Amino acid sequence: MVDVRGVHKNFGPLEVLRGVDLQVRTGEVTVVLGPSGSGKSTLLRSINHLEKLNRGYVSIDGELIGYRRSGSKLHELKEREVLKQRLHIGFVFQNFNLFPHLTVVENIIEAPVSALRRPRKAAVEQAERLLERVGLADKAAAYPRQLSGGQQQRVAI
């Protein structure tokens, strides 16, 4: 479950999020709607601590994200600890953030090989299985520019 409580986020004098409360239970689908500049992306980026909060907190399955509690105070975690938390938080960016100079398979294995230190061969095998599941097995050697928007989205996920 995702629990957002009293979240405030400022960019200088601009207050983007003002006391946002949101609860998404396991299995629920939630849509965040609003006009451009209303804070949707900032809220989503706050959930996995890509944006640091000015006030409030986010927890997932009862675990604070980006902070640890000491008494009544929150203390920000070190980046290494936040990165460990992010390994368990799925996030699909608005623009697909695929590396244009890498093939589909190379994009998929980049994080497992670089960040998780998985063996390249095992990562490629897993990537190929995932591509098969989403109907893109024939696109493994393609580059992002050769894919449709929907195909790029599936690769990014």
Low-confidence stretches: none
User: Could you give the order of strands across the largest sheet?
Assistant: 2-1-3-4
Shape: globular
By helix and strand content, what is the structural category? alpha+beta
Share in β-strands: 15-25%
CATH topology of the largest domain: Rossmann fold
How many helices? The count is: 5
User: What is the H/E string?
Assistant: EEHEEEEHHHH
Q: Could you name the CATH homologous superfamily of the largest domain?
A: P-loop containing nucleotide triphosphate hydrolases
State Rg.
18 Å
Total domains, how many? 2
The total beta strand count reads 6
- Helical amount: 25-40%
CATH architecture of the largest domain: 3-Layer(aba) Sandwich
Main sheet, how many strands, which sense, barrel?
4 strands, antiparallel
**CATH first level of the largest domain: which class?**
Alpha Beta
Q: Give average pLDDT, whole number.
A: 91
Task: Report the span from N to C terminus.
Answer: 20 Å
Describe this entry's structure for a reader.
It is a single chain. With 157 residues, the chain is α+β, with helices and mostly antiparallel strands. It has two domains: 76 residues, Rossmann fold; 53 residues, no CATH class. It has five helices and six strands. The strands form two sheets. The protein has a four-stranded antiparallel β-sheet, covered by helices on one side. It has a two-stranded antiparallel sheet with strand order 5-6. The longest helix is centred in the last third of the chain and has 14 residues.
